[in-house]
Amino acid sequence: MRNWLNEFSKNKRTISEISSEKFEGQLNEFKSFVKINLSMTFVLAIYCMLRGKKNFVKIEELLEELDPHIENDTVIFQVENLFVAGWFMFGEEGPFSGSDHIYLTHNAELALKSSNTKAIPKKTSKKEDAEIMAMYARAVSFRNKNIRPQEWSQYVRSVMTNKDLPLISYLISKKLKRIDVNMALYVGLIQIFEKYKIELNQLIYLFSDNQIDYARKKQELSDLKHPLFEKEVLEINIRDHSSNKIGAHRSWMAVQNKKYISIPSIELKNKTLEWNSFQKIKEKTLLYNPSINKQIDLLKKILEPIHFKKFIKQVRKNGDYAGIIILLSGGPGTGKTELAKQLALLSQRDLLTFQVAQQRNMYLGESEKAIESVFDDYRRLSKTMENAPILFFNEADSVFGSRTNNQSAISQTENTIQTILLNELETFEGILICTTNVPDQFDEAFNRRFLMHIVIDNPDQEIRKALLMQIFPTIPENHVSSLAEAYNFTAAELGKFKKQWDLQKITGMQQGKIETNLADFLQKSSQKANYSSIGYSI
Fold first, then answer.
1. Where is 90: in which H helix or E strand?
2. pTM of model > 0.70
3. CA Rg, the chain, in Å?
4. CB 112 within 8 A of CB 3
5. Which residues contact 425 (CB under 8 A, 6 or more apart)?
6. pLDDT per residue over 217-240, tens digit each?
7. Does residue 173 share a domain with residue 147?
8. What is the predicted pLDDT for the residue at 528?
9. How far is the C-alpha of 446 from the C-alpha of 130, rounded, in Å?
10. How far is Cα 65 from Cα 14, in angstroms, rounded to an integer?
């Protein structure tokens, strides 16, 4: 068994050694084994010579070693070819470190160490994949400053003729300036292969001719109205205390890989906001009283992307702001929060949840800025999304309450927050869903801004029966009817009991029939509810 890595690493790395007849004969044998062209074989052999006991070789080291024998441009080109052919992988100490490393792929390592011909890497059979790999390899060479910006621009110009490649055809359709195309393709390729966004300053540095050009490009790319952002090619994460990052827009990445549409990299300025992808929401069948189903069905329809776009067009034609602001009210456990989640899932919209409790714990003076940043985040991110997300205010009465004349610092702060909210809602464009258990506590000015107010009542007897049959299909029908008639309960209460019952089953502590235990649970819940209401009745 011949170990090519050991053989080449034993050579003295000198010009005379590489030029000797002994090395030439060894190189021909190596070429016969690896079955690639002579130039690629030579580069791979020198890589093995440098590898020695290390797991990687820096590109600079390879260029230095080959400098007397092959032009740098040729070395870089063959390194790129070896990457596409499956021999090399790129790695780095850090983005833009200028010292990217070359690693052997798993198959390449196995083939070289054991002379196993079956392990010899094979170039991907998919033409599209090979083309994208070649473009990424060239982007890496550009990042390492092994090719000049003009060479990258020329290369991009040549690949932009490949209209059959979805990644390219998407860019062509946007009709961008050449410099914007150069930057966009670089960012997109890095994101496809390395899965990270690039710091804006570093990107501009790569594409700037001088300091004035750098300053101009930085100003241009800090504007969300830049064509790269407005045309959904790139997206930018603007951050207060660290560098802004720029990446490929999800819509563009989706033409290459559909998974990209559901895994955005979200960075929020407001730390009380929580981002949830709609694809992480579990589908549930929700049951409501017939009296509100018609309203919910209308809401489902208007949130469908095709209908929402028509709504926006019509409202703007009328000179109004295209905002859908919804209030869901009802008692605890009636399914308000879950309805918001299911609406997000059905309309394939991500959910941006405002954590009211965290907001109220902020220091005086910070709350006002934080409320404004909620809407700033929403506007900024909406521009980068194919479907506008849903801004979700759970327990909205905590911030939408009535204004007071109290002169305390806290009351004045809350009044200021409410004024900010009213102004934001007046000009809001997008989708906002609020929930509350106490709609009567809302300031009337807020009520006027709700397009729809859906009151979700406790389930009636028929819905209670349906819920029992859905959650506990093993309970006999006669018991279902008696339970639904005897107790007023919500889906949330049934869900709580089911978890307790499952826990008892897992631990071997279940006793009696499920319907008997459920009746006992509902009886106790009813007593607690009655006890809690004492002293609060009107």
1. strand 88-91
2. no
3. 32
4. yes
5. 323, 325, 432, 446, 449
6. 999 998 888 999 989 899 886 654
7. yes
8. 66
9. 57
10. 9
